[in-house]
Amino acid sequence: MFPTLALLIGSFAVILIAARLLTTPAAPAVRNVTCPRCQITQIALRKPANARQWLWGGYTCPGCGLEMDRWGKPLKS
Ligand SMILES: [Zn+2]
């Protein structure tokens, strides 16, 4: 493998981790997010459903399946 490729992958991983640290709310359990469609309170400590949720935070409503960002705003995907 070319060393430059390894370097690229390495720096990409660092950027991902940095973005994750910067966007993680300081106290995620305190925030109460309710689904704008069916008003179900979203579970604060949840498993991210996909890479975007893992990176930026967010919820998938257990009631209606609506995807939200970590502020509870609905997402179009
Ligand atoms: Zn819902």
How are the SSEs ordered, and which strands pair?
Elements: H1 3-23, H2 51-56, E1 59-60, E2 67-68
Antiparallel strand pairs: 1-2
The structure holds zinc ion.
Q: What does this protein look like?
A:
The chain is mainly alpha-helical. The protein has one domain (3-68). Helix content is 35%, strand content 5%. The protein has helices spanning 3-23, 51-56, and strands at residues 59-60, 67-68. A two-stranded antiparallel ribbon has the order 1-2. The radius of gyration is 16 Å and the shape is elongated. Bound molecules: zinc ion (ZN).
Share in β-strands: 5-15%
Separate helix tally: 2
The 3D shape can be described as elongated
Strand and helix order: HHEE
- How many beta strands in the DSSP annotation? 2
Question: Ligands bound here?
Answer: zinc ion
Task: Report the mean per-residue pLDDT as an integer.
Answer: 77
Biggest sheet overview = 2 strands, antiparallel
State the end-to-end CA separation: 36 Å
Which strand order do you get reading across the main beta sheet? 1-2
Number of domains: 1
- Radius of gyration based on Cα positions: 16 Å
Q: Structural class given helices, strands, pairing?
A: mainly alpha
Helix content: 25-40%
Task: Indicate the low-confidence ranges by residue numbers.
Answer: none
Index terms:
2 strands, two-stranded antiparallel ribbon, mainly alpha, 77 residues
